[in-house]
Amino acid sequence: MRVYLSGTLPMLFGLRDAGELPAPITGFAVTPTLREWYASGDAEELEYAAFTDAARGSLRLLDADPLAPRRRVVLATDLPDSAVEVLSDLDRDAVRVMTPVTLSDVVSLHIDNSDAEADVRAAAAATLEAELGSEDAQFTVDGAEGHELAWYAVGELGPLLDLWPD
After folding, report:
1. Cα 145 from Cα 19, distance rounded (Å)
2. Is residue 102 part of a domain?
3. CATH number, domain with residue 61
C-alpha cells in the first residue's frame, strides 16, 4: 500500500541517522472511505488527495516544532497492507502504520523549495485556525499549498540533508 507520511526536516535527519522511523506513525493513503468520498476520481487523483493531506499534516508538525526549517516534507512509502490500519474515524484517508518505517520502505521524498518558506511559515502558524473554520487562515494555508513540493529520490537524502545543519 502506498502511504504518504507527513514530516519535517528533523524527521528526515532521524530517518537517516536511525535508519527507520518508529511506529506507530499516522499517514495518509487511498482508503475505502476516500474512494467513496471521491467517487469520480481516478487512481492518480486519489493518490494526489492523500499526498495533499500529508502535506497539510506537515504544516501541523511544523506548527508544533518552531525550530524546524519551514519546509513541508512528505515521504511516499510502500508498505505491506498488514502494517497499515485504516483510521476512518479520524479522516477519510488517515491510516496508522503499525511497524517501523525503514529507509528501504521509502519510495520518494517531497520537500518544499526555498521560495515556499515564507508561505509555509505563515501557513504553519495558521493551520489550526484554518482547521477550526477561519476563512482568513484557510487563505493563508492555501498560499502554501500553491507551492508544489519538489521530488527527490531516496538516494538523494544524504546530499539533501547536507544543505542544513542538523
Report:
1. 29
2. yes
3. 3.90.210
Residue 162 counted as domain residue:
no
Query: Is residue 130 within 8 Å of residue 137, measured between CB atoms?
Result: yes
Classify residue 166: in a domain, yes or no. Answer: no
What pLDDT does residue 147 have? 96
Kindly report the pTM of this predicted structure: 0.93
- Per the structure, the complete domain to which residue 23 belongs is given by 2-154
pLDDT, position 38: 79
Residue 42 domain-assigned (yes or no): yes
Residue ranges for the chain with pLDDT beneath 70: 41, 165-166
What pLDDT, on a 0 to 100 scale, did the predictor assign at position 166? 55
How far is 72 from 59, CA to CA, in rounded Å?
Answer: 6
Cell of 77: 512509502
Total count of domains within the chain? 1
100 contact partners, CB below 8 Å, separation of at least 6: 20, 21, 22, 23
pLDDT at residue 35, rounded to an integer = 81
Q: 70: Cβ–Cβ under 8 A, 6 or more apart, which residues?
A: 62, 112, 117, 118, 120, 121, 124
